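A student in our group prepared the protein record below, which I am reviewing. Thanks in advance; the entry in question is below.
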Amino acid sequence: MNKTRAFALIAASIILSPVPASAFSETSEVSISTGKRVDNLDWNIAGPTSGQFVNVRSELTWSDIESHEVRIGARIFLNRYFLKGEAGYGFITDGQNQDSDFMGNDRTDEFSRSNNSADDGSVWDLSGGLGYLYQFPALGGKFDLIPMAGLSYHKQNLTITEGVQTIDTVSEQLGPFSGLNSTYEAGWGGPWAGVDLAYQRGNLKLFGGFDFHVVYYRAEANWNLRTDFAHPVSFEHWATGTGIVFSAGGEYNLSQRWSLTASFKASDFRASDGTDRTYFSDGTAGDTPLNEVNWDSRSAFFGLNYRF
């Protein structure tokens, strides 16, 4: 038997050797994963126009914001106490933006709309929590139940470029316009509580989780083509809201230390009854209601775990 074949057989025997189910649930691990993520975000404000106050004065929508994301994580067991941390960063590669203004209530009498590119920017997330492990035998394997609580912060750094005016009832100047390079940076942070679940049997583990978040929302924007606005901060938003995060996936052991994972995560956050504060170039500022902010995210990952 040559050395190459012998090495291959040894490697295969290590990778395919059975691993006790307890290796999944009672050991700590670090992980790295990568995948695709799609986000949507929108907000709208009330305000005055043409001598009247309308309930939706302006509305911004970012849709199908695609990014390539990398995540790192750690799970540490201290007896039955469980620490979990995760950080992710994504590079935005594609997306669309729409900016609409209205003269009437309930999004009527739209007098301005631009449809723009949003294919640059970034998204990132930080989360950490503490839980307690309850473990039960089930269906020939083990079932984990881990109530948890922690803190998280989520950021979307969004851009608006390559502007195209599609509605303009005032000056009737339609088509592409140059120089658009506006930014909107949104952040969601606060405490959360939830539960992690897992079922493991042999080399396979199925897992999932659900978290409920209470969030403080804050954002700032630079509207670069508005000469009547201040720069680099043209306006700020703040509000309070809630969010939910759902995750599910599977893990397969390659050896006593290494395993492959595939997972899906969905987030849905809402904030309302906030404040829009606009800063003008003459040094003054004005407030108007921020009606609502909506953000949802979907992502799929493949990764590698190392247990120690």
Notes: The mean pLDDT is 92. Residues 21-307 form a domain with the Lipocalin fold (CATH 2.40.128.90). The chain has one domain: 21-307. The longest helix spans residues 3-16.
